[in-house]
Amino acid sequence: MQNPSIHETLMPAVYVCHMLREFEQPAAVLDGCDLDPADLERPGHNITVEQNLRCVANAMKLASSPAWYLPWGLRIAEYIHGPLTSAMLTAPTLGDGLDAFLQYFGQRIPYMDIRSRSGGGYMHVELTPLLEVGDLLPPLIEIPFLILQHYIGTVRAQPINGARVTFVYAPRTAVRDYRRWFECELGFKARRNELRIPAAWRATPNLGYDEALWQTALHKCAEHAAPRGAPSVLHVLRGQMQRLFNGLDNSATPPTLAEVARHLNTSPRTLIRRLRAAGTTYQLELDNLRRLRATELLRRFTLPIASIAESLGFADAASFAKAFKRWTGMSPSAWRKGCLAGTRS
Q: 276 FRET partner, CA 20 to 30 A, in 10, 57, 107, 200?
């Protein structure tokens, strides 16, 4: 799908900044891009998608090895995605971290479409360029999958046997070069650029979980993703929803749209319009809040699932189970079993 407007979309310059350090003649990487190396070193500096892709194309021509970007991509995996990295590292579970990546990856890499689906006991993450990128496809696809592989392995703290990565193109270098960096099963000339993992892995507890840091990182991600003027709306909305939902004893049911609007001193119609401008809806925000609360309550292993369903505002346990499977690809009981097994290992 070609979208010319994406060429002028701004994105972080940090990727190009780190790319320059890979080459003895960094100026050659910037050829034809009208970029000042000093500007690239400034925190928070942005460049256009077109400039970023030109730099990648220049780097591909300069590189001594066709697979030079694989070790580079793995080295930069942990610290180039800003608050998204923080959100992933402090998420309650592997699934929560992956969901954050899916939701906010586009704000860092706006020329790539990322989406997921569940089926056959697996979670599938698919990547598709939104622009015609030609020979740049391999690094643009493989680096995000390397980052996800590294994250999954870090949270699980064990080999990722059972995962599989497929690419729509033929290998651009010897397959053994790929196997030096990809720790899972590989496939080429496939129908999709896809990472597939067992859905049960989503329940893996993250030992780096920190509720305060997790929520702060999510708010930062939302602020960066929203249009100018919208961040404060989202920040206030989410804070107010959490306060109304949590109550003083963590037993309150989810607030209605009207209740949230009243506490924000606005009308439901105005709130709906502001959320739409911020790229979200009340239902999406409520689902995210319910999902976070559900995983928190399911880790209280003696709490009945029916009680959790009621506290989340569902009519019954079956309705909760249907929603939870839509969120995570697993039933609440299966998620809880996986989480319990993780605490015993």
A: 10
